[in-house]
From TrEMBL:
This is Interleukin family protein. PANTHER family: INTERLEUKIN-19, INTERLEUKIN-19-RELATED. Keywords: Cytokine, Disulfide bond, Secreted, Signal. The lineage of its organism: Eukaryota, Metazoa, Chordata, Craniata, Vertebrata. GO terms for cellular component: extracellular space. Residues 1-29 form the signal peptide. It comes from Solea senegalensis (Senegalese sole). It is found in: Secreted. Disulfide bonds join 37-129, 83-131, 84-133.
Length: 182
């Protein structure tokens, strides 16, 4: 009798796992074709983590007149410079933003860590592409750094976290554009 109960319990656990795997959404990955290189970005996952912290970072942003990352800056990146710009932008977020962003809420800490880890992975994958950076692209990133250092480091990190929707929206658009061209 005990053996039969163990088998039923094992079978029901297996069925439950199978059901959960069927119900869960697959990680949506967009291939970004950057010059001669392709990098997968899980934008749905990034959006999910960002939406967890978005209201907190926006509420904590006391410098609403300052923009670190202007949409026009991203929109004007030359076609052949996408690889370089994405690499430098990931580097900026990994080295300057995520390490200086602080939240007292454990869920927000987990989400920002997940975002940081995703950006590190994207950065590592892009590093293999050996992107060439033009002077204009470097100037764009330098202007992002210049706006960042105008603020106190924690305020700047908070603002940059709030502006992640600009980055994620751009990556979404870039992924859809490169996905349509295949």
């Amino acid at each position: 009798m005990m053996m039969m109960m163990k088998m039923l319990l094992g079978c029901s656990s297996l069925c439950l796992l199978l059901l959960l795997s069927c119900l869960s959404e697959p990680a949506h990955s967009l291939p970004l074709r950057l010059s001669s290189c392709s990098v997968n970005v899980h934008t749905a996952e990034l959006w999910k983590y960002h939406s967890t912290i978005r209201s907190d970072v926006i509420a904590g942003d006391s410098e609403i007149a300052v923009k670190i990352l202007d949409k026009s800056l991203i929109k004007d990146v030359q076609e052949g410079q996408m690889c370089c710009f994405v690499r430098l932008l990931m580097r900026f977020y990994v080295e300057r933003v995520f390490g200086n962003y602080a939240s007292s809420q454990p869920q927000h800490q987990r989400s920002s860590s997940a975002l940081a880890n995703s950006f590190i992975t994207i950065r590592k994958d892009i590093h293999k592409c050996h992107c060439h950076c033009a002077e204009d692209t470097q100037r764009k990133i330098d202007s992002v750094h210049a706006e960042f250092i105008k603020l106190q480091i924690n305020e700047a990190a908070q603002k940059a976290m709030g502006e992640l929707d600009v980055v994620l929206g751009w990556l979404d658009g870039l992924g859809q554009k490169t996905g349509d061209s295949s």
